[in-house]
Design goal:
152 residues; alpha+beta; globular
C-alpha cells in the first residue's frame, strides 16, 4: 500500500448505537430527557437520537459537544476555564462557526490510544449531561475515555 494513503480508525455504527442507547438509559434513570450524538474522528455524525420530550436545542448542542470532543480529543468542559474572558483561549467558542462547545457533556472515544470519535449529550444540566456520557462509556467495554482528566 502506498505511503500516500492513510487509514484512520473510527467508531463503528454498532458501537455508536450502543453508546447512544446507554446514554438514554442513564438519562431515564436520572429522570431527564436528552439527545445523544456519536461522531467519528472527523466530527461527522455516525448516529444520533433525541428522547421524546427532550428540549428543542438538545440535538444541535449534543452534536456540537461531540464535534468539539472529537476535534480536540478532550472533554468539552476541560475548555471552560481557558475560554473565560482573559483566558489563554478566550474566544475559542466562536471558532468553527460557533460549533465549539465548552460546557460538560462531550467526551472523546479513544481506542488503542487514538481518538476514534466522540459522544455528546445535551438536554439536562451540564453536569448531568456529562454523567450520562460517562455512564454510557463505562457501560461499553470497547470504549475508553480518560474520564479523570479535567484539563486540556
Amino acid at each position: 500500500m502506498s505511503e500516500d494513503v492513510v487509514f484512520q480508525p473510527t467508531v463503528s455504527l454498532a458501537w455508536a448505537e450502543r453508546l447512544v442507547r446507554a446514554s438514554t438509559v442513564s438519562a431515564v434513570e436520572r429522570g431527564v430527557r436528552i439527545a445523544a450524538v456519536v461522531v467519528d474522528s472527523s466530527g461527522a455524525v455516525v448516529t444520533a437520537a433525541r428522547m421524546d420530550g427532550a428540549n428543542a436545542v438538545a440535538m444541535q448542542l449534543a452534536e456540537d459537544k461531540a464535534f468539539t470532543a472529537a476535534a480536540f480529543g478532550a472533554a468539552t468542559d476541560s475548555w471552560s476555564r481557558p475560554t473565560e474572558p482573559g483566558g489563554a483561549d478566550w474566544g475559542l467558542s466562536l471558532a468553527v462557526s460557533g460549533r465549539i462547545v465548552v460546557v460538560a457533556g462531550g467526551l472523546p472515544l479513544v481506542a488503542d490510544g487514538r481518538v476514534v470519535g466522540a459522544l455528546g449529550v445535551s438536554g439536562a444540566a451540564p453536569s448531568v449531561d456529562r454523567s450520562c456520557s460517562e455512564d454510557a462509556i463505562r457501560a461499553e467495554p470497547g470504549a475508553f475515555h480518560p474520564i479523570g482528566s479535567a484539563e486540556v
